[in-house]
């Protein structure tokens, strides 16, 4: 069955990227699945890795790997220098003031847990309030719930509109209680694609003296982030969503705050001096990096940032926006398909439902057509509850996706319709 | 498309659209909820058991075509069966959706779900209702999860 082509013929992609060259950087994209060319549209879950990242990890293990920070031998010095070099790359990427403000963790989730645990235990107590939004990933809900259980604080949630935009009046109303000790919100919603007005949200909190954590897990691969311009207290993201390896996360924190905070975990590398009577902690950032970290992974993240910087985030954003503009009307043409999340400021992802067809069935059928999407609650069950659905299907785009792949997605969705009719 | 038809057979699509025994039993002797944490799907099963025999069985809830059809077909297969056979039937059904074995006669039309064996991520969908039945027989209060 052919999709009706009410839309005019697609103009040539407006993007200025050399897509063929970018795609050639990703060995994994060259394969076929179930006999069809792989169309990977599950990028909001995790993106694929360019050869530069795979090579950087291989070069570390194959050429100069050793434990860092305490070796007197050459390999340890080289590993330390590559690891700390990656920290500088992250600093520059976020435009942080100092490498001391860049803490390596396991993922964005651990970065948020670090703040909830360390900052939370020090600054948040019974009767206090923590404000989050209704469109948070579970990773920016559960750590605060745990903190509330421990401390007796209360979690407050900013609602959003049907389009998926935060209601700022409600946000301000919650901030005005006088009891809010921290605001934590997502920069770019993984379930809706909404890009939140972070600068405004931060200013409104700061006007009341409230510190802010931004969950940047989804935003960093798609739009340029300048933590000094945003002026947020904390910014968290994961390496694996920005073309780096999994198992590495980043927490940016303002130096004065990090210095005042107690350690998150105890162990090696985070100490100055240990006796059984008393331990002096190491300076930043080591104070928050107990134990041997994911050395090769951090170096891989550095390579990923180099790779992304060479393309340029503005070009990435323009290309992905083109894909969204191309995909949205073609998806809306499919009868019974409903896109969830239609914010004016939206990133390149489409979460949708199809009348009478469960997202899991959509996902299975698309997989057989070579199209990899996500079906489920996307670790954002409150968002599903907001719209009264158990799950959605989600196609999310990265820099290496093409208009042809959007066409493959749309054609596969028409097949879903056909099968279920 | 042909291999997809192996999974989404007409019987499955039919039971998905028009699930049988899709209702609430007003006074069940046993009931339980099953939840698939992967997708958040949740179904409730209700049983009326008399003298060790399933007199009536029904279900409610929302799920994918595989879990809905499986639940619907299961209610048809289990109605009138002795309770002592359920564990054995569940095992047989599990084999049908995970291995290359033939579908035993006692499972009725449930053999149409054999295609699930080629889709390992969907086995949990096919067995959700069975997990709920087992939980109901064990009189469990909390929803049973597939993992």
Provide structural commentary.
The complex is a heterodimer of chains A (421) and B (147). With 421 residues, chain A is an alpha/beta fold. Chain A has two domains: 19-50 and 312-420, Aspartate Aminotransferase, domain 1; 53-310, Type I PLP-dependent aspartate aminotransferase-like (Major domain) (Aspartate Aminotransferase, domain 2). Helix content of chain A is 39%, strand content 16%. Chain A has 14 helices and 17 strands. Chain A has helices at 19-24, 51-64, 74-94, 108-123, 142-151, 168-175, 198-206, 227-230, 255-260, 295-311, 313-332, 359-368, 381-387, 403-420, and strands at residues 32-33, 36-37, 39-40, 102-105, 129-133, 154-158, 180-186, 212-215, 234-238, 249-253, 271-274, 279-281, 337-340, 349-354, 371-372, 374-376, 392-396. In chain A, strands 4-10-9-8-7-5-6 form a seven-stranded mixed beta sheet, with helices on both faces. Chain A has a four-stranded antiparallel beta sheet with strand order 13-14-17-16, covered by helices on one side. In chain A, helix 8 links the parallel strand 8 (212-215) and strand 9 (234-238). With 147 residues, chain B is α+β, with helices and mostly antiparallel strands. Chain B has one domain (2-139): Sufe protein. Chain: A. Chain B has helices at 2-7, 10-17, 65-78, 86-98, 123-137, and strands at residues 30-36, 41-50, 53-62, 144-145. Chain B has a four-stranded mixed beta sheet, with helices on one face. In chain B, helix 2 (10-17) packs across helix 3, helix 3 packs across helix 5 and helix 4 (86-98) runs antiparallel to helix 5 (123-137). Chain B is globular and about 40 Å long. The N and C termini of chain B lie far apart (30 Å). The mean pLDDT of chain B is 90. Classes of the chains: A alpha/beta (421), B alpha+beta (147). Chains A and B meet through helix 12 and helix 14 of A and helix 1 and helix 3 of B. Chain B: This is SUF system NifU family Fe-S cluster assembly protein. Chain B: It holds the Pfam family NifU_N. Chain B: Residues 8-125 form the NIF system FeS cluster assembly NifU N-terminal domain. Chain B: It comes from Candidatus Competibacter phosphatis.
């Amino acid at each position: 069955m052919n999709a009706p082509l009410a839309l005019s013929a697609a103009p040539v992609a407006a993007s200025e990227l050399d897509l063929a060259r970018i795609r050639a950087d990703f060995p994994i994209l060259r394969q076929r699945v179930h006999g069809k060319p792989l169309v990977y549209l599950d990028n909001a879950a995790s993106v694929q890795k360019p050869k530069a990242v795979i090579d950087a990890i291989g070069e570390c293990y194959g050429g100069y790997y050793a434990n860092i920070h305490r070796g007197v031998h050459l390999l340890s010095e080289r590993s330390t220098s590559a690891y700390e070099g990656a920290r500088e790359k992250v600093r520059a990427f976020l435009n942080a003031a100092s490498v001391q403000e860049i803490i390596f963790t396991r993922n964005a989730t651990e970065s948020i847990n670090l703040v909830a645990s360390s900052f939370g235990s020090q600054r948040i107590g019974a009767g206090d309030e923590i404000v989050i939004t209704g469109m948070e990933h579970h990773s920016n809900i559960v750590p605060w719930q745990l903190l509330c259980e421990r401390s007796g604080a209360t979690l407050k949630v900013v609602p959003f509109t049907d389009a998926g935009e935060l209601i700022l009046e409600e946000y301000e109303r919650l901030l005005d209680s006088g009891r809010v000790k921290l605001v934590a919100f997502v920069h770019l919603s993984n379930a809706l694609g909404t890009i939140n007005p972070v600068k405004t949200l931060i200013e409104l909190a700061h006007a009341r003296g409230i510190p802010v954590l931004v969950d940047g897990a989804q935003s960093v691969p798609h739009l340029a982030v300048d933590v000094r311009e945003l002026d947020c207290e904390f910014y968290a993201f994961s390496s694996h969503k920005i073309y780096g390896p999994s198992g590495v996360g980043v927490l940016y924190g303002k130096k004065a705050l990090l210095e005042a905070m107690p350690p998150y975990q105890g162990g090696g590398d985070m100490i100055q001096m240990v006796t059984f009577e008393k331990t002096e902690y190491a300076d930043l950032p080591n104070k928050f990096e107990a134990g041997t970290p994911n050395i090769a992974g951090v170096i891989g993240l550095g390579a990923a940032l180099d790779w992304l910087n060479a393309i340029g985030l503005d070009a990435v954003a323009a290309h992905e926006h083109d894909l969204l503009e191309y995909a949205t009307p073609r998806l809306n043409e499919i009868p019974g398909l409903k896109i969830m999340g239609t914010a004016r400021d939206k990133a390149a992802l489409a979460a949708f439902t199809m009348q009478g067809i469960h997202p899991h069935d959509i996902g299975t059928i698309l997989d057989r057509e070579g199209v990899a999407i996500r079906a489920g609650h996307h670790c954002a069950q409150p968002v599903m509850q907001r719209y009264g659905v158990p799950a959605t299907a989600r196609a999310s785009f990265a820099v290496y996706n093409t208009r042809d792949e959007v066409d493959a997605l749309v054609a596969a969705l028409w097949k879903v319709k056909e099968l279920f009719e | 498309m042909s291999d997809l038809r192996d999974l989404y057979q007409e019987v499955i699509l039919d039971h998905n659209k028009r699930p049988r025994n899709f209702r609430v039993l007003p006074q069940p002797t046993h009931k339980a909820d099953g939840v698939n944490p992967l997708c958040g799907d949740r179904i409730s099963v209700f049983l009326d058991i008399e003298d060790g025999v399933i007199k009536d069985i029904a279900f409610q809830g929302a799920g994918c075509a595989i879990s809905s059809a499986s639940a619907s077909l299961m209610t048809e297969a289990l109605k009138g069966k002795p309770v002592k056979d359920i564990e054995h039937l569940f095992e047989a059904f599990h084999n049908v959706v995970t291995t290359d074995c033939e579908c035993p006669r006692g499972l009725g039309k449930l053999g149409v779900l054999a295609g699930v064996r080629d889709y390992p991520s969907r086995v949990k969908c096919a067995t959700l209702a069975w997990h709920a039945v087992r939980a109901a027989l064990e009189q469990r209060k909390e929803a049973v999860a597939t993992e």
